[in-house]
Amino acid sequence: MRRSDLFLPASRERRGEWVGATRLLVRAGLIREFGSGLWGLTPAGQRVKTKIEARVHDAMRSVGAQAASLPNLQYSDRWRESGRWGAFEGEMFTFRNREDRAMCLAPSHEEGVVHLLDGLVRSYDDLPVVLYQIDSKFRDDHARAGLLRCKEFTMKDAYSAHVDADSLREAYRTMRAAYLRIFDDLGLTIAVCGADNSVMGGDRSEEFVAPVDEGSCRLTHCSADGCRWGVTDEAAEFDEYAASDDCPDCGGRLATDGGVEVGHVFELGTRYTDAIGLTVDDRDGGTTTVEMGSYGIGVTRLLQTIVMQGAWERDGGSDAESLDWPVTDWGSVAPYRAAVVPIGDDDAVRETATGIHDAIGADCLLFDDDQSVGERFAESDLLGVPATVVVGNHYRETGEVEIERKDGETRSVTPESVPAAVERFATGD
Ligand SMILES: [Zn+2]
């Protein structure tokens, strides 16, 4: 992408009420507020979201989940059958349409997936089925910290249907493992916490909580490498554990931080299928009520959480002056993998810079407009681009260009080897 073509309303605005990650995302021009609890993404913000979604789509395919699409606008009948009409913690947007029928904007899709399957799965042979979508959800929640808590947000929600509890437990374990691989690839530290099923109902659930400086809950978690043990202040046993106690799982040291819930998996059992009436023929000639699981990841919340954890771990928390996206063996969700900064406008520099940009492709930002050199470096840093390619004096003297990593480390390579070097160098190789 050429900088001269990019719509990037980087405001560098230091005033305003935003703090921490929200302030950074606004300042870097990735998000814009549309009123309390409503946010839009600019093209650069949308690029980050699309990369997160690509990783989630891959994980869902790897566990055999099939993409579906359920309507967000729904009539009240299924919600009345499940008992959640008006009971969704007072957070459901409800209204009457022109025919005076009660409708809602779906805050979740357990009722929707039961409706989709009802009458279409008839026998144990038709199960298990795992469906998912990545789409908007609507909840009239109290707005908080930018994308962390919104009234409309993007979520990956998956649902599994089973003939018995053993099959459900197996799908739950598979999905839980896939979630941990997603969070590892995105470079997030995550604790897994036993949780209350609350408005979802059902038998068992676990939350995936990212430790951050200031989150939406308090989290006590194990600080040992590879251990995922954690408990949030929403659990009754939270007060039984203190920072610097021994971890009940591995004996490591516990720490207490803020936390953000980025994922939640539920063994719902027959909570919805009983209420709405979803049965299949079983192996013994009788009928049995379908067992269900439900699995969510907050995609837009994840975007902000990655920024929060990155700023907290690497750049001094709310004082951070630039975005800092983790780079793992999988890659990075940074809006651009690389930026090219030409210094001087002689033909050789301009042609080499353009050639490098064209070779890397759409994931590269070429600073080709009338910004000063200082402004170009500042913008690349603010956006958190992991590798900045400098074509200037060093190139004129040696024929090689410099790649600067966000942590300041620099390497000199030939222009032809930049695409491969950017990939390796960004992962610390
Ligand atoms: Zn531990």
Task: Give me some keywords for this one.
proline-tRNA ligase activity, 429 residues, 2 domains, BirA Bifunctional Protein, domain 2, alpha+beta, Pro-tRNA_synthetase, proline--tRNA ligase, 11 helices, binds zinc ion, five-stranded mixed beta sheet, Rossmann fold, single chain, ligase
Question: Can you describe what's shown?
Answer:
This protein has 429 residues and is α+β, with helices and mostly antiparallel strands. It has two domains: 300 residues, Bira Bifunctional Protein, Domain 2 (BirA Bifunctional Protein, domain 2, 2-Layer Sandwich), CATH 3.30.930; 89 residues, Rossmann fold (3-Layer(aba) Sandwich). Helix content is 29%, strand content 27%. It is built from eleven helices and 21 strands. The strands form five sheets. The chain has a five-stranded mixed barrel. A five-stranded mixed beta sheet has the order 18-17-19-20-21, with helices on both faces. It has a three-stranded antiparallel beta sheet with strand order 4-6-5. Helix 1 crosses helix 7 and helix 2 packs antiparallel against helix 5. The longest helix is centred in the middle third of the chain and has 21 residues. It is elongated. The two termini are 26 Å apart. The model has no long low-confidence stretch (mean pLDDT 93). The structure holds zinc ion. Zinc ion (ZN) binds next to loops.
